[in-house]
């Protein structure tokens, strides 16, 4: 028996197929025997991949066809083709809107085991990976983000899912919701981003953190705060253990972040003592991976972008300073383990695999290839000279240790940035120039972040 619902589905599928045929037809009008450039080919294949990711079965089959066709034909007038694509994309969005969205298969948790979890900064680099894991585990996840460095695109794949909610909200303003657990990640983390508006960074990590603890106190939620290795400043103890009090310049350019994160920790333990809020404190060391903002400005994204675009790889200072880099999935494991543990003192989460920045530049250069030169520029003021986590506590208390080797993590990150570059080259905002981290005004993400 053919129901109205079945007819509606047929209609949607037929419209989708007709639309894709129109795409192919339009493309065929724009092509000649000339071969497309790598950028053009990648762009078209990116679009087709997007369709394949989001469409229904018929749509996927047809887009594969479009991808094959587009990968062998050439483009005579790229500008005209791009205009056409924009117009077609708009129509595609209308079609996609009508096709039920497919989500990754999430675990089913009973009411007893399913938690309502707030992730502040959940649309950011680390936050969005954490959200993926919590969603896959079957929890209800609420993301709060002001989109200064976070992007809707990072969590778009969950929008509309019954377990997911995205709230555009700046945590410097109070929030009234019901939750069981909170991961408080909201704060710019890259030096040029946190130095861009130091007062706002301080507000986020002080007033914002007070708002989070106020919420936790009202509803009885447990809070994990994302602290940082920067609380150790330019450390005089190596590797850094959690018992080390740090060496921070309170009036230097990094102080807005270092000191406000130190206050965040103080707030956590004060709310714990005075108001019985359950607290967890993760001191996060240098972390990298896909979904870092193309304008992030930290060393991993800068070096990869520089190598991919054939620009000079810029080492600030001598390059003898060290860092230890952890891949984002390892961090997410650690955060979840810590949140669900019985341990309430600060815990270092980082990979002890230490490299000088000079070595790191060579690793990236070798892995990406290309013609970039490695050059030295003036050092950053107050740049910590050595950094490596002692992770004995995380290993003993949480049974955690990082698993992803540097080469593997970097490979995945390079793949991500290749795609980001394609996207950026074809968007109105051409964002592919690496940020000069020593100049906070060189970030240009266009968001209004000036409210004080
Ligand atoms: O293009 C660049 C960028 C950075 N660097 C250097 O690379 C090193 C690492 O710099 P990053 O900007 O990646 O990160 P930092 O270690 O200074 O700060 C980070 O610390 C840990 C986290 O909490 C934060 O993500 C961030 O504050 C520094 O010595 C910096 O001077 C370069 O040599 N060239």
From TrEMBL:
Pathway entry: Nucleotide-sugar biosynthesis; UDP-alpha-D-xylose biosynthesis; UDP-alpha-D-xylose from UDP-alpha-D-glucuronate: step 1/1
Predominant location category: Golgi
Broadest EC class assigned to this enzyme: lyase
Keywords: Decarboxylase, Glycoprotein, Golgi apparatus, Lyase, Membrane, NAD, Signal-anchor, Transmembrane, Transmembrane helix
TM segment ranges: none
Cellular compartments annotated: Golgi apparatus, Golgi stack membrane
Topological type in the membrane: Single-pass type II membrane protein
EC number assigned by the record: 4.1.1.35
Cofactor annotation: NAD(+)
GO molecular function: NAD+ binding; UDP-glucuronate decarboxylase activity
Gene Ontology cellular component annotations, sorted alphabetically: Golgi cisterna membrane
Pfam families registered for this protein in UniProt: GDP_Man_Dehyd
BP GO terms, sorted: D-xylose metabolic process
Annotated spans, Disordered: 427-452
Similarity annotation: Belongs to the NAD(P)-dependent epimerase/dehydratase family. UDP-glucuronic acid decarboxylase subfamily.
Name the UniProt record assigns to this protein: UDP-glucuronic acid decarboxylase 1
The species this protein was found in: Petrolisthes manimaculis
